[in-house]
Amino acid sequence: MILKDRYCNNWTNYSRLKTKEVMIGNVGVGGANPIRIQSMTTTDTMDTKASVQQAMRMIDEGCELVRFTTPSIREARNLVEIKSQLIKNGYNSPLIADIHFTPNAAIEAAKIVQKVRINPGNFSDKKKFQLNVYSKNEYQEELKRIEEKLYPLIATCKQYNTAMRIGTNHGSLSDRIMSYYGDTPLGMVESALEFVRICEKYNYNQIILSMKASNPIVMIQAYRLLVNRMQQEDMIYPLHLGVTEAGEGDDGRVKSAIGIGSLLMDGIGDTIRVSLTEMPEKEIPVAKDIVDYINTKKSHNQIKTIKKIPIKPFVYSKRKTSSLMNIGAKNKPIVMAACSFKKEFNYDSLRPFGYTYLSKLDKWSVGETACDYIFVGDNDINFILPGSLGIIYNYKKWIQHKKGYPLLSCDEYLKKDLVSNKMNFIYVCLNTLSKKIIDKLKKDSTAVILIDTYNNNGLAEQRSIFVELINNNITRPVIIRRVYKDISRNKLQIHSSIDLGGLLLDGLGDGIFISVKKCGNDEQIKKISFDILQSTRTRISKTEYISCPSCGRTQFDLEKTTAKIRQHTSHLKGLKIGVMGCIVNGPGEMADADYGYVGTGPGRISLYKQKEVVKRNVPTANALEELIDLIKANGDWVSP
Fold first, then answer.
1. Any residues with CB less than 8 A from the CB of 201 and at least 6 apart, and which?
2. pLDDT tens-digit profile of 581-633?
């Protein structure tokens, strides 16, 4: 990785980025401190009892930093009572005030809590979705205006020893930033650094930064670019990681693990928050699983340092591959499943993989999330298979009947002449990727490379394999295999999302193959595989919901509303629907969604087509029906 692209200490061996230590009350963030876990209450901050009780539940689960929404001075002042009640109950965890639009509330809160979070997109700017042309002088005048707004908060934070998080959200970049930098990771980075430079001008450096987005690709590019820019400007502040509006259930967990975990694997990140459309105490176990898994990477077999790294870290680019049947090139990544441990096969054996045999019609029904290939090892298949399903055998079994496709070890690949003239899967680990294998792969148009790893830091080792292939101009498709055993289904979901998602976000991989032992059933494994591809936006198989995690600003029950919208729209494959509790990020995030459902007041909803508001102040009782009508009017509705 050349200097201008550098964003982490080491691309192949785990090394945590050393950032400045910032104290939030009695909790240190950055430096040599462990990765901290935080979350945010969903209660009305004026409801002291409810806020205190929820905060205590969060802390009991392991939340180290508790954030409260603070929309006005009124809520800011009530933080005194919340803080007092928590201390009275024996809870001394640092508290954070979350500020949007109201600098005065930030100043008041900074006198009370240990940290304030401000959003540079709306701290001193109002978003009107208007693009203007700024001369250099005009832009400098805008920065002076920001400085005048920000200085009183800086002074207060210095006086009360209060930390500050400058938290950029992709969905709420100011019109000024959008006009100058566009809707880009660079715009997100500059939005934050403008505020950092003002803080440094007044010798204030108790700063933490974040670059949140609902799209994990945008999110990791922004954080990487931020680290790169900070290093260029000789500053390295702690980073808070999160995928904003990650959603609910499995989708929210997978998307968060992919975005947060891929950065932590590169040593980037000092605090994390998993943003789920659920009660905040449910976020903490997920965050713990992510951090615990990353901590296991501190000790691993060292991987040879790669001098020439051909992957651009700040721009998504799919690895160039040749096409072989339905794998590689412009084909969507395939999903492979493992059946090699089954003792016998029948029609029902394929049901968990998305194939249902209709005996009366004597044909197969194929689900939307049906696996593309199944590895059966040395097993025999004695019935007619679905035409869309590829079967892979161990080479020694394949040689007996020459059905389906063979999987060859590197030794078999080099020594055996009798192979399929259609497609052959070559099993490769980093230590078996010899010059002879590389030379043969260059000439073989029938090869699909199945990469595996036994290194504790498998993501880095498999990334090294990709780099070797790219640097040797090998364009054969690659399937990423990972093996897991003796862990819970929840941990499997987190671990595989990090391991596979971290590669897919860099455009690496033409398919995935999760193989397990005592980790869950076949149907669960298949679902996790498709969820990973959906969250990395490499293969869309269902509706995507961009829903915020709720807070005291929320105008309706987000969890119930999202579930109701999902119930009526989950059949709209490929559509992205945003469900936002308030207008803080709502309009901006609508740019990444096809349709938006945004709370604008008690009992009132505004509906969006992308970032444009279409209907305002729709009564909540009619809002779902109106949303469906809007989707129909734009030709995106299909019958369930």
1. 147
2. 776 655 665 567 889 888 888 888 888 898 788 898 899 888 899 999 999 99
Task: Enter the DSSP assignment of 516.
Answer: E
d(CA 122, CA 167) in angstroms, rounded, equals 11
Nearest-CA neighbor of 555 among 515, 612, 604, 508? Answer: 604
The per-residue pLDDT for range 141-192, each reduced to its tens digit, is: 989 999 999 999 999 999 999 999 999 998 888 888 988 898 899 999 999 9
Residue of 245, 278, 249 lying closest to 259 (CA atoms) = 245
CA dist 469 and 554 (Å) reads 49
Selection from 618, 605, 611, 610 nearest residue 634 by Cα: 610
**3-state secondary structure at position 393:** strand
* Token pair belonging to 149: 């707004």
Ordered alpha helix ranges (H), 241-363: 249-265, 283-295
- C-alpha–C-alpha distance, residues 351 and 392, integer Å: 18
Cα 477 to Cα 513: distance, rounded to the nearest angstrom: 14
Helix (H) or strand (E) holding 420: none
- Choose among 5, 9, 8, 32: nearest CA to 19: 32
* DSSP H or E stretch at residue 630: helix 620-633
HEC per residue, 67-121: EEECCCHHHHHHHHHHHHHHHHCCCCCCEEEEECCCHHHHHHHHCCCCEEEECCC
- Report the alpha-carbon distance of residue 523 to residue 349 in Å, rounded: 11
For residue 489, give Cα distances in angstroms to 165, 522, 525.
34, 11, 9
